[in-house]
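Weekly structure sync, notes
Attendees: PL (lead), two postdocs, one rotation student
Agenda item 3: pending single-chain targets
PL asked that the sequence for the first pending target be pasted directly into the notes so everyone works from the same version. It is reproduced below exactly as submitted, 266 residues in total.
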Amino acid sequence: MSFLSNFLFPSPPSVYLTAVTVISFAVLSYYSLAEVWGKHLGYSKFWNAAQKKKASTVMKMSSRAGMLLLYAPAFLAGLASFGLSFGDQRMRSLLLRSALTVHFLKRVLEVLFVHKYSGGMDLDSAIAISLSYFLATVNAIYAQHMTLGMPDPPLDLEYAGVVLFLVGIAGNYYHHHLLQKLRGKDDKGYKIPKGGLFGLVICPHYLFEIIGFVGISFIAQTVFAFAFTLGTVGYLTGRSYATRKWYLSKFPNFPREVKALFPFVF
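Predicted structure, written out during the meeting:
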């Protein structure tokens, strides 16, 4: 605990924050394992696979509408936080609110202007992910507010966090752009991605998303932010494992030296 106290704010005496921290980590851990077990959330390339395992009564929506539902509420929560700061004008709090808002604004803009879509999305998956992002944004900002009046941790990571966040958001966008370029105007098929770090891992966009979330947790330095980031790392690791397995099953010429998420390791 003394080691953690070097870079984390003390946990505030809040039953609510403790509960949401534990629950969010547990839920993300479950979805991490579910991806490995083949129980995928119904979006992207796993949408068709998910449809075969669900009843026909499951409500479906277009991928564009589903992706907007994923990110827009979290973006609006981040934006609203600037008008509801409750007197918390610290630079760390401003950086955290800015990073969360920019992250989800970028995702909304990518949904509208970058991504190309080949399928649909299950409404239940869209609601689950949207709720997770929305609550994570609200609770990260609330957890930061609860540190008001506390001394900063001895090891100040907020500006290192800004650098990691910017690296993560830039790398994530770049690899989304490469994925977008794979398809022509009316092309809905999948191809083996190339360029950037795709020669090393099949999910570099997830890798940079992880870097971005690590940056956010460094800015915040709260237990909730680190727990949510750790859960996110677990989920994206499971999703990338399933993605690599999917590419291996669909493309006989998929290069087996390409890892799932972490170059040369996994």
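Discussion points:
- The chain has a mean pLDDT of 90.
- The longest strand covers residues 60-62.
Action: rotation student to compare against the earlier draft before next sync.
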